[in-house]
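Cast an eye over my tokenised protein here and flag anything odd:

===
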Amino acid sequence: MTRSKQRFAAVAFTFEAGLGLVAILIGRGMGVDPLPLMRLSQPTAEFATSALWGIAAALPLLLGLVILDRQPNLLADFKQRVTTIVLPMFTGLSVVEIAAISAAAGFGEEMLFRGLVQGGLQTWLDQPLGSEIAIAIAAVAFGLCHWLNATYAVLATGVGIYFGVLFVMTGDLIPPMIAHGLYDFVAILYLTRMPGRPKTPAENLPERKLP
């Protein structure tokens, strides 16, 4: 593995995990600490149930990924952005590194968007639609922060709504964290290592080198 790849893996892990730590610090300063929303002190059986919720919630997203990937003419511009910008960053990383980055993304991004933003807004918005408004705002912020093009942002916003509803349904950040991290991990492995999957023309281009 090249040194640039090792550096990328370290930076990506640190950045994603750092989002969660920043969210905790900001939340505590604002009186809406998101860390207790993980419910780490719950009994083992309940924790296992939360984990199963997360695993189950990742499956429809992964199925959607495979279906979309098998339709070469569907959302072609979106796929080109992914294959030319996102995938080259992860190609060549070890499974352990991909797993670490994915887990950090699940923790950091969910702690920030579902824990701090959505959880904080649910606390402050004392009205009948407070929960729905919190889900929508957190999801839009999530989508905008994943902007590669408009299609990518819209799809990310939809995923953000999905994770937000999962958080409300379970009352626990662990399910969306696991669903997010597991989806990222399997999706990256599928897109970079799955033999026989259909490739777009962009995937036949030379790999982009990191600086």
